Every structure is written in C-alpha cells, then in structure tokens.
C-alpha cells in the first residue's frame, strides 16, 4: 500500500509541477523523504533533524570478510580490506589532539580558571566583524566548491541517530524553549546584552543542538570519553551525489542507461522533486517551486550549492550517455558504475590539483606528497595502515575557516559577462527556485567564476553572521558563533594545544601571540579570554598570518595538510593508485583524466548554454586567464573506455 501511495504522490507532484519524468525503473521509487532530507541549522551541514542515513551504530556493526570489487561501496565499507568499517557512516571523528571537555566524558569545556568560556556570539561580534576585503585573484567558486568538498567528507550526527526526538532549545523567534532545560543535547547560544541586532528584537538565544556522540548510541560507557559522530563516508567519493547507502543510491537512479534520475522542465533536465517540499526546502514560497532530491540532505541549502550539485549530476549523466553509445553491450549497472568511477576521479583531480593548491599552496602540498605534478605514471601511495577518517579539528575548525570567503550577494552573469542582477543570499536559503527562473542556472554558474570571493581573513559578511537562515524574520543566526560553539561541542583541543601538536612555537602569554597575528587581534583576545591557554582553536587559527602560498596560517595548514594526505593515501580507490590493476584506470585513461579534468571543463560541459570560460575557473578572469571557447579546453577522452564485446566483464 505504501508503494502505491508513494507512486500516486509522485504523479500528483509531476502533474502540478508541469514536469516530464524520464522513463525510469519503478523499483527505484524514492524513499519517504523524511529519511533522506532535512533542514540543518549549520551552513556546513551540522545536522539537527531527520537527515541522516539510517544504519547500524558502528560499534555494533558486523565486520564481515571483504571481497575485492572493482567499484566502491556506497557506504565506504571494505575500502580498507583489513578494516572494513573505516570511513563508513556513523563513525566517530578522529582526534589530532586530546579532547578538551570539562570532564573525561563530554561535558561543555570551561576556562582554565573553571569559569565559563566567553560567549560565542560575543566573540563573533567583537573579532569577526562585517567588513569587505575582496579577493583580487580568486573567484567565488573557490569558496563554493569548498562546501562541496566539505559535504563530501563529513556531516555531524543529529538526535535521530540515537533515536532521540529532535529538541527545540531556542524557538524560531529566539526565545528559550522548554527543551533547553531538559533535553541532553540542548546547548543554546545566549544573546549577549550588548547585541545591537537581536536584543532590540527581543531575542534571548540562538538554537544549538549538540552532536550525537558514541555515548548517545551506547558505544562508550557512561564514564568513558565520548566522540561526536559523522554520518557520511569520509572518503572523497562524491557521496553527496550518489548517496551514502545502497537504498539512497537506488532512490536517485533512473534505472536505465546508467543515469541518475532527472526530470525535464522547460527543455532542461533537473533532479527530481522531493516528496515533502515544505519540510525539505523550508524557504519556499509555494509548493510549486522546485526542491530537489539529491544524494545529500544539504543539497538545497543555498542556490549556488544546489547549482554545483546539479553540475555533478549532469556530469555523471553526460558520461553515462557517452559510455552507453561507446559500449551498447554494457548494461545499466556497468554504465552507472563506470560513469560514477570516472566522475569521482575527475573531482579528485580537481580537488587536489586545482582547488587545494589555492588553499594550501602548491609547494606545501608537493613537500608533503599530497600532489605529484607532471607525473605520467601511477602514484602507488596507498597505505592500508592509514585511515581516511575525518579529524574533528579539520571538520569543526580548520576547514570551516573558509566560511570567511562567502559573499552576501550573488552576481548573476550573462554569457557576455554582463551583470544580469545581484541577489541577496539570505533571500534564497533552502529555496533553489532561483535556478529555474529564466537563465538563473547558467547565470549563477558564470557568476561563481566571475565574481570575486571575499578574502580569507577575520572579516565576515553580515548575511552569514546576522542573517543566516533568516526566512521571513528580520534577522537570522550567526554562522561564526555556530562554528565556535560547534568546536566546543566537539571538545576541540585549544589553539595552544594544536600549535604544540603541530610542532609550532607555543605562546605562554598573550604578548607572545604578536608573532603570529596582528596586535589588534591579540588585544581583542586578551579582553575576551582569561588565559592564552583558553583560546578556541576555531578563533586563534583564523587570526594567524598566512603561510606563503596558502590562504591559512601554520596551525590550520598543519591540520589541513595531514587531513588531505590521509584522505588520499587511505583510499584504496584513489584515482592515481595503480597497485591493484582490477580497480585502476589504464595509464592512458589516467593521463587523460590528468589532462582533461578541470573545473572549467566541468562547468562548460554541464551548464545549459555556457560557451565561454576562463581556463582556471577558480581564478578570476584576467589578461593571464582570459575567457576561451569551451571547445578549446582540454577534455577527458572517453573513447579510451570503449571495449569490445568479448572484453565485457
């Protein structure tokens, strides 16, 4: 009966929405959306509602013997043959440094004198002030692609993982709710009395729900150290496109031709509509607006994020269509898995040889063996003793620093590189309808590569420190305050402790900090914190002077280099690995990926009518990086995947 109801729901949605559904295997009817989608509060997707894949707690999971397979599992299991659950959903984040809880379990951190740490909203208001310092080299795409990478690697667990009701700690109007005093996961952010935005509006708090931990799912004893959980795979495997388990993966497949499921509206393919628009896209103005079913629960969070999700769906389908033509004897499953494998490889190439170069610096990455420039052979650096698990210092501090590059207004740019219009970010949170308004999709994609990002610094846009998820209110929540609060929730080691872990000079006094950051910021830190030993990693790391060639200081650089090295060498399926020829690309295929995979080509191939793009799409257009015709850009040669019938596996 439920299957019949679901099918009728889809028919009614499509009838009302005016979409043409591509022919699709009905066995992959989408799941009830409450198990797939959610409306988390945190911009990088800290989960607060029913938006996690349902799976067995990792401490009770059965570690079966693994068989070698050509393709990745959806949930990351058996990537490491000796440790099958490494990198799978519902695993705890790893620690770089010792956890900093007030007890040995997971109680909220305290200052060194036993008092409360400074209010996170107050830190945000005082240090991370709204001031625009615009990048002169890097496009907004640099910031936005970072959110794609972040969502691929981690998603903190919400209450339903522990079968707990999701609490309301602070209600929609900013008033303290009854759950705040009774629910174990409530830890709202109080509004400080000097808050000139929220105090006049009568707000008392910002909602904040603690991450579900190993303690909450009975994986650790009541007196043992608890660890926060991530509910997506930690591998760079495009789980945000394909889902984190087989059930979700099937729900977004077309069932023929190896394609991901799309519908056709106004002559263009779009991901299918969700089954509960008002819940899954809480910013919509009517149920006639689009709200997409994607591989990740956060995909509708902002229009620029959604646009890149659609680019990746289109790329998979573009490759699947080409492989289907080249190999008409291949069945749906083989086309799908090969297209998935190629798309993942392309994004890994873009991540390591374009995107991360900007953040971490080419020389820094080469020195630590994260990249091998101009290499023409396999890079056999897979290490089965290294876990690709995500460090909480990475997910909750270092990688969040790049929120500072977010722009509060998005420029929509025509093919002639003329400004069509500028839209306010907070008007479009959880409302992707902008993409289907006229040429909105292409104009926004062009804008990401043409508009400058904000600089990587301590200055933050008001749209995310005052108006995040504003909805119909006059103001929203503060992302920077949320970031600092999440760091405390996860018991991050302090700024000083992480400097020690990274073998960097350790400050004993506030005066010592002047070697690493501006005098003005040192003065502010001294006014806020009792001791230099209390400075939050999220805060101190964001204020450091940058390492040459990088967009971060030495502490965050240390964390990021180690994290992305582990993700590379801890992944048996990483695209440059050739140790296992059953899963490796052929050398001609690998070198074609190296030559042809780029951010510019990805955008060109998968926009609707994008004809021109600069070669380095993370870099602003300039005399040294001028616009070229898309067909002049190198491309992956998919004919290298053509195979005769007798070679078909």
From TrEMBL:
What is any one GO biological process for this UniProt entry?
Answer: response to oxidative stress
The record's annotation in InterPro entries points to: Haem_peroxidase_animal, Haem_peroxidase_sf, Haem_peroxidase_sf_animal
What molecular function does GO assign, one term? Answer: peroxidase activity
Q: Where in the cell is it found?
A: Secreted
Q: What is its main location?
A: secreted
Which Pfam families does the annotation name? An_peroxidase
Q: Which residues form the signal peptide?
A: 1-20
Alphabetized, the UniProt keywords read: Heme, Iron, Metal-binding, Oxidoreductase, Peroxidase, Secreted, Signal
- Mention any one GO cellular component term assigned to this protein in its UniProt record: extracellular region
Q: Where does heme b bind?
A: 403
**Iron found in the keyword field:** yes
Record's superkingdom?
Answer: Eukaryota
PANTHER family noted in UniProt = OXIDASE/PEROXIDASE, PEROXIDASE
UniProt protein name: Peroxidase
The source organism is Papilio machaon (Old World swallowtail butterfly)
């Amino acid at each position: 009966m439920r299957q019949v109801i679901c099918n009728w729901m889809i028919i009614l949605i499509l009838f009302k929405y005016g979409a043409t559904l591509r022919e699709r295997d009905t066995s992959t009817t989408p799941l009830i959306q409450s198990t797939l989608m959610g409306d988390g509060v945190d911009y990088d997707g800290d989960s607060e509602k029913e938006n996690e894949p349902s799976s067995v707690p990792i401490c009770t999971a059965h570690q079966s013997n693994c068989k070698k397979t050509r393709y990745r599992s959806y949930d990351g299991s058996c990537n490491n043959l000796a440790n099958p659950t490494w990198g799978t959903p519902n695993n705890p984040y790893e620690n770089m440094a010792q956890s900093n809880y007030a007890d040995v379990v997971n109680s909220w951190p305290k200052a060194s004198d036993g008092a409360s740490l400074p209010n996170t909203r107050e830190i945000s208001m005082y240090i991370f002030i709204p001031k625009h310092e615009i990048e002169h080299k890097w496009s907004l795409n640099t910031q936005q692609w970072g959110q794609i990478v972040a969502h691929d690697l981690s998603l903190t667990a919400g209450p339903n993982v522990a079968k707990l009701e999701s609490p309301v700690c602070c209600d929609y109007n900013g008033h303290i709710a009854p759950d705040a005093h009774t629910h174990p996961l409530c830890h709202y952010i109080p509004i400080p009395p000097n808050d000139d935005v929220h105090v006049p509006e009568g707000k008392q708090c910002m909602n904040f729900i603690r991450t579900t931990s190993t303690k909450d799912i009975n994986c650790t004893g009541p007196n043992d150290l608890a660890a926060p959980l991530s509910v997506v795979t930690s591998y760079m495997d495009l789980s945000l496109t394909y889902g984190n388990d087989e059930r979700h993966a099937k729900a977004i497949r077309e069932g023929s031709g190896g394609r991901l499921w799309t519908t056709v509206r106004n002559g263009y393919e779009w991901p299918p509509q969700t089954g509960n628009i008002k819940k899954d896209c809480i910013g919509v103005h009517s149920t006639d607006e689009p709200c997409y079913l994607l591989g990740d629960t956060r995909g509708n969070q902002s229009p620029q994020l959604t646009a890149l999700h659609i680019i990746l769906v289109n790329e998979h389908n573009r490759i699947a269509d080409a492989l289907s033509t080249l190999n008409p004897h291949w069945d749906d499953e083989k086309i799908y898995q090969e297209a998935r494998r190629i798309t993942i490889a392309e994004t890994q190439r873009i991540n390591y040889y374009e995107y991360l170069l900007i953040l971490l610096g080419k020389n820094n990455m080469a020195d630590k063996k994260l990249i091998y420039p101009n290499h023409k052979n396999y890079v056999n650096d897979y290490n089965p003793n290294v876990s690709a698990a995500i460090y909480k210092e990475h997910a909750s501090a270092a990688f969040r620093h790049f929120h500072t590059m977010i722009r509060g207004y998005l420029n929509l740019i025509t093919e002639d590189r003329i400004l069509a219009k500028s839209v306010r970010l907070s008007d479009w949170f959880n409302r992707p309808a902008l993409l289907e308004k006229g040429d909105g999709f292409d104009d926004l994609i062009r804008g990401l590569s043409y508009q400058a990002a904000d600089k990587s610094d301590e200055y933050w846009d008001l749209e995310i420190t005052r108006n995040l998820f504003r909805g119909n209110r006059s103001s929203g929540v503060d992302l920077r305050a949320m970031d600092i609060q999440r760091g405390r929730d996860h018991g991050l080691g302090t700024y000083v402790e992480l400097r020690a872990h990274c073998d960097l000079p350790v400050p004993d006094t506030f005066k010592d900090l002047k070697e690493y950051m501006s005098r003005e910021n040192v003065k502010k830190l001294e006014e806020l914190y009792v001791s230099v030993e209390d400075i939050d990693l999220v805060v101190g790391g964001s204020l450091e002077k940058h390492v040459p060639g990088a967009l971060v200081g030495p502490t965050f650089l240390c964390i990021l280099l180690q994290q992305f090295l582990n993700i590379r060498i801890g992944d048996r399926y990483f695209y440059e690995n050739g140790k296992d020829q059953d899963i490796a690309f052929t050398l001609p295929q690998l070198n074609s990926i190296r030559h042809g995979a780029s951010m510019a080509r990805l955008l060109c191939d998968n926009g609707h009518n994008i004809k021109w793009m600069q070669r380095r799409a993370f870099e602003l257009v300039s005399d040294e990086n001028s616009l070229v015709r898309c067909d002049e850009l190198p491309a992956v040669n998919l004919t290298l995947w053509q195979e005769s019938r007798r070679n078909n596996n």
